[in-house]
């Protein structure tokens, strides 16, 4: 499988380079992409997965493994399900500043912007598609904030319980005498922790239900696990989950 993937990537790169170097009225060449799966009628292609992996600096694009594709396919499925759901809600429009900031956060994961741009070019990811992918993920982040984080409720009793069971024992083990109630800094931290945990749990439960409801048609051999794999607890963001 890895050899086939490597060959696909090399062929993809050669065709892209060939198109860039071929003068215009010459005949253009096209590379037929591979359909990996469909989700509620929306297609996931092998290019989608390779582009997703291109955002991960830990992945060597010359030796993509089947495990890499399976992992990123699962994340892409969750992102697509959230994107489909987000399309049903009137979310605020993205600003140019938000898009530019997201791009810079991603670029900073790499040694330099030149290295990042060369990486995108190597997998045929042009500026327009890059912009679209960033916007898609930002819209999903907005939906996640709206759907799973806005309405999380953490009560005073929740804070005190967490303080008694998690914070005070650790302080005592470190030889620190802890007061019976948390200070404001500790309270703020506990609220953040509990809010994040509850939002992630809500998101994970929603994704599990969405996968059960979705019409998922796996087409590539490594996509067969889509109908059985559990969704990631992490939020699909601008950068893909690290292995």
Structure description:
Helices cover about 60% and strands about 5% of the residues. It has about 240 residues and is mainly α. It is globular. The two termini are about 20 Å apart. InterPro entries: PrsA_foldase, Trigger_fact/SurA_dom_sf.
Task: Give a concise summary.
With 243 residues, the chain is mostly helical. Helices cover 59% and strands 5% of the residues. It is globular and about 60 Å long.
Per CATH, the superfamily of the domain at 2-147 and 211-227 is: Porin chaperone SurA, peptide-binding domain
The radius of gyration over CA amounts to 22 Å
Low-confidence stretches: 1-32, 235-243
What CATH architecture of the domain at 2-147 and 211-227 would you give?
Orthogonal Bundle
Shape: globular
Tally of individual helices: 8
Estimated share of beta-strand residues = under 5%
Topology pattern, helix = H, strand = E: HEEHHHHHHHE
Helix content: 55-70%
Structural class estimated from helices and strands: mainly alpha
User: So what's the CATH class of the domain at 2-147 and 211-227?
Assistant: Mainly Alpha
* Main β sheet profile: 3 strands, antiparallel
SS elements, strand count: 3
What is the residue-mean pLDDT, rounded to a whole number?
A: 81
Distance between the termini: 19 Å
Write out the strand line-up for the largest beta sheet, numbering strands in chain order. 2-1-3
> What fold name stands as the CATH topology of the domain at 2-147 and 211-227?
Triger factor/SurA peptide-binding fold
InterPro entries: PrsA_foldase (IPR050245), Trigger_fact/SurA_dom_sf (IPR027304)
């Amino acid at each position: 499988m890895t050899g086939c993937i490597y060959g696909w990537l090399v062929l993809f790169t050669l065709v892209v380079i060939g198109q860039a170097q071929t003068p215009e009225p010459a005949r253009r060449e096209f590379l037929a992409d591979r359909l990996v799966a469909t989700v509620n009628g929306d297609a996931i292609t092998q290019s989608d997965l390779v582009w997703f992996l291109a955002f991960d600096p830990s992945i060597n694009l010359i030796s993509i493994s089947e495990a890499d594709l399976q992992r990123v396919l699962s994340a892409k499925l969750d992102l697509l399900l959230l994107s489909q759901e987000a399309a049903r809600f009137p979310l605020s429009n993205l600003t140019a500043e938000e898009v530019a900031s997201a791009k810079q956060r991603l670029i900073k994961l790499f040694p330099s912007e030149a290295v990042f741009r060369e990486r995108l070019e190597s997998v045929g990811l042009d500026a327009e598609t890059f912009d679209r992918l960033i916007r898609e993920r930002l819209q999903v982040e907005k939906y996640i904030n709206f759907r799973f984080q806005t309405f999380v409720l953490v009560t005073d009793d929740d804070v005190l319980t967490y303080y008694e069971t998690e914070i005070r024992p650790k302080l005592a083990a470190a030889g620190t005498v802890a007061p019976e109630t948390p200070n404001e800094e500790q309270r703020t931290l506990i609220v953040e922790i509990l809010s994040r945990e509850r939002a992630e749990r809500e998101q994970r439960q929603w994704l599990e239900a969405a996968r059960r409801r979705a019409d998922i048609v796996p087409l590539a051999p490594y996509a067969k696990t889509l109908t059985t794999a559990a969704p990631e607890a992490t939020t699909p963001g601008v950068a893909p989950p690290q292995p």
